[in-house]
Amino acid sequence: MGWFLLPFDNLLCMLLGISFTVWFTLLLVFIIVPAIFGVSFGIRRLYMKTLLKVFGWATLRIERGAKEKNHLIYKPYSNGIIAKEPMSLEEEIKEIRRSGSSRDLGAASQEFEMSDIFYFCRRGVESIMDDEVTKRFSAEELESWNLLTRSNYNFQHISLRLTVLWGLGVLVRYGFLLPLRVTLAFTGVGLLVVLTSIVGLLPSGRTKNFLSEKVHLMCYRICVRALTAIITYHNSENKPKNGGICVANHTSPIDVIILASDGCYAMVGQIHGGLMGVIQRAMVKACPHIWFERSEVKDRHLVAKRLSDHVEDKTKLPILIFPEGTCINNTSVMMFKKGSFEIGTTVYPVAIKYDPRFAEAFWNSSKYGMVNYLLRMMSSWAVVCSVWYLPPMRREEGEDAVQFANRVKAAIARQGGLVDLLWDGGLKRAKVKDTFKEEQQKLYSKMLVGAQEDRSRS
Q1: pTM, whole model, 2 decimals?
Q2: Domain span at residue 393?
Q3: Within a domain: residue 435?
Q4: Do 348 and 442 share a structural domain?
Q5: 302-337 as b/e, with b when 16 or more CB fall inside 10 Å?
Q6: pLDDT digits (tens, 9 = 90+) for 396-447
């Protein structure tokens, strides 16, 4: 029987060979070669417009089905659930005392009153009910359904057609897009390691810098296509230049790929082991990236000196830094660490905003590992985002590093349509520092002491 099945085995091998040949030919012609030359055939844009039409139809179908079954349509809160008026601590306590006491307010404001407790109780309840910090570390809720596993509260079984459409989406994403994207990701990373290692053998000079730039751009563009990323860059005349620092809000590890596919940067980070370590060692051979040992990261003076030495050399690439130090969920910008703003150089702010309808770009590192997160991204529809290059900024006279960092952060938040928060992103894993509590205590004490001083002078 073995000789009888031999022709079928040969036919199967031939079909598999033809399939792999066609597969890699399509990859080479439509993805890899355009990535090398930085051109696009417009297929991804057409794909995005088609998805928007499908999402729109699915949302209308859900709303119509909800009306037929008398179900309420859930709308996520966009501006918080508590209306807060911008009032100072002193103004609010005066308002509480005015409504709860018949005594003269001026005389009463010099000492503690039991009614003052209600101010702090109310603030505490507001923080619990409408926590503006912890909700920045979970995926933002969608108003429309994007046919992914994570949907809004409106999704439920409406019709057979909608369920079939969701099933077809699963087949397309996991049966076609995921294998294609994984292949592209391995191709891009493999080429990055091999080609940067080869370029690193060349002597330092213009030729090496030129080839290094082309290799990095080509490999990052292949990796961008591995995510079916559709990126719109605005104000390219403000792109970071050598001898400066590029700072951007941080949503995902792919922020690096999004920015580096439009221009080369010197990366800053901690030395890793495994595959990431291999990539880092290969990259630093071709380009002067800044990698720190684990023990060096906490040495602020050493970090600042390495950064200063880099920006003083105008032949080196601009440094890319994410001052938040952690990923935020694409709705806000949180406190910028002041370290990168203490260096006397030009800062190039960049705002990044993802479209949540196509993929959940936020990386919740406490919930998903890196590999798990990348697989979720590669099995989503696409990565659609906008990047704004803001005008360069420098530290003004009399301005300290914290004030400069807040000014840059406010500009990024304003351009990206993000909420500007003063909280430290480190609260994602750590408890609130005692300094935050002491600040409120100092404000209250200052109010009482100030009232007593005013009375003694009078």
Answers
A1: 0.77
A2: 228-423
A3: yes
A4: no
A5: ebeebbeebbeeeebbbbbbbbbbbbbbbbbbbbbb
A6: 888 888 889 999 999 999 999 888 888 776 666 666 666 666 676 677 676 6
